[in-house]
Amino acid sequence: MKELFSIGEMAKLFNMRVGTLRYYDEIDILKPEKKDEETGYRYYSTKQFERLNTIKYLRALGMPLEKIESFFESKDVENLKNILEKQQKNTREKIRELQYIDKKIENRLKQLSDSLNTVYDKIEEKHILERKIILLRKEIPIGDDLEYSIRELERFNNLEPAMFLGKVGVSVSEYDLKHRSFKNFSSIFVFIEEGDNISGENISLKESDYLTIRFSGTHTESDRYYTKLLKYMEKRGYSLNGDSIEITLIDLGITNDISKFVTELQIPVKKS
Question: Against a cut of 0.85, is the pTM above it?
Answer without folding.
Answer: no
